[in-house]
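Batch manifest, entry 17 of 40.
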Amino acid sequence: MTDVYSIIVKFFQEGGFFLIPIAIVFCIGLAIAVERWTFLNWERMRNRKAFAEFLPLLRSTEMEKMQMYTRENTAPIVRIIGCGLDMMKVSRQRADVENAMSEGMLEVMPRLEQRTSYLAVLANIATLLGLLGTIIGLIGAFTAVANADPAEKSTLLSSSISVAMNTTAFGLIAAIPLLILNAILQNKTKAIITSVEMSAVKFLNIMTLHRFIEAGVPRIIDPNASSPFAAPPAEPAVSQQSVPVVSAGPGSDEIHEQPKQENAQDSAEVPAGESTADDKDDGKKLDDGNMVPA
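Output type: structure tokens
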């Protein structure tokens, strides 16, 4: 035990000034890791206990008891469910309740994720401080060797380099555990958030099953209702009737038929024995051409 202590003391004595800030960064990272580990374990236990107590009330669909429980308990999952119950006083649509619970989730998540990302930053700072200490140590070593006796230059240079490398080694010793702790705490945080989301979905499904909230009913469109994209009504059909027309040349015995367009509604039957205006016009044209219809 004494040998280990003496080695550590000698390491810090030979490492130079930069070992002190690296040690401070490492201690801050360890303090954050311990605090986050304790907090996340506590929150996980609170969530499990709170939802286990709330689940019988949820299945019994006693709204007053559920609302009272959410006011008394401060666990993250209970706070999120409380946001959903408050929205149910105004709207029973599942989408509205889900949006309210998502808002509660946004309030809870920062408390679970705060300060965990500092561990990665502190690990990088420790590594960079170690490199900086090594570079400054090498600069001092080469400066000292330049003024030393030529016979002692190699020995002095090697010892100075070994001392300067202590800061890099200690920076890596501090950074590696901090990165490992950061990964562990990130996974633990994600596991808690996933369990909270699963409990929130279970709450929504049970409330939908008991008809306390509506999942949404599609709109029924009247097939007879006019649509703004419907095609315009078709125009009335136009019938064609051939009307004999006498050619304009004198002495011409040919009669050409020219189609005439009439409206379908104007083509009503004419009582027998009565002539229409078109028939009179046709007879007049035939008389002018000295043609008598057969």
